[in-house]
Design a protein that fits this description.
By secondary structure, the protein is mainly alpha-helical. The protein has one domain. The chain is built from five helices and two strands; from the N terminus they run αααααββ. It has a two-stranded antiparallel sheet with strand order 1-2. A hairpin with a 5-residue loop joins strand 1 and strand 2. The two termini are about 25 Å apart. The relative contact order is 0.13.
């Protein structure tokens, strides 16, 4: 992730401007900006995400950065929360499978 998707975070980490824990927060939240159907849009959103977070990561605690990163991720995500929620609902599956021994399996994805 640092090598390919988050160059500004990698640079700040290598220069010592931010700690590895700060970089982890940025990476974890950046994963929430999915590639989806339009990888270029997601890449642009990740770049904006980094532009906002890397400078403040230098002065915020890890906990405060995590909160800020979550909020910034929601604002910079290429799809609205409503669209993402609708896709998630459509992708959900529940499967009930009866087994030969009188038991059953329930799968939720």
């Amino acid at each position: 992730t640092l090598a390919e998707d988050l160059p500004a975070t990698r640079e700040a980490l290598s220069s010592g401007s931010i700690s590895y824990r700060h970089a982890q927060v940025i990476m974890d939240q950046a994963w929430g900006i999915r590639m989806g159907d339009d990888p270029e849009s997601a890449a642009r959103a990740r770049a904006v995400f980094e532009d906002v977070l890397v400078p403040v990561a230098e002065v915020l605690t890890v906990a405060k950065l995590a909160d800020r990163a979550r909020r910034v991720r929601e604002r910079t995500h290429p799809e609205t929360i409503t669209t993402r929620h609708q896709k998630s609902v459509e992708d959900r599956h529940v499967v009930f499978q009866a087994l030969n021994d009188g038991m059953a399996s329930l799968y939720v994805t």
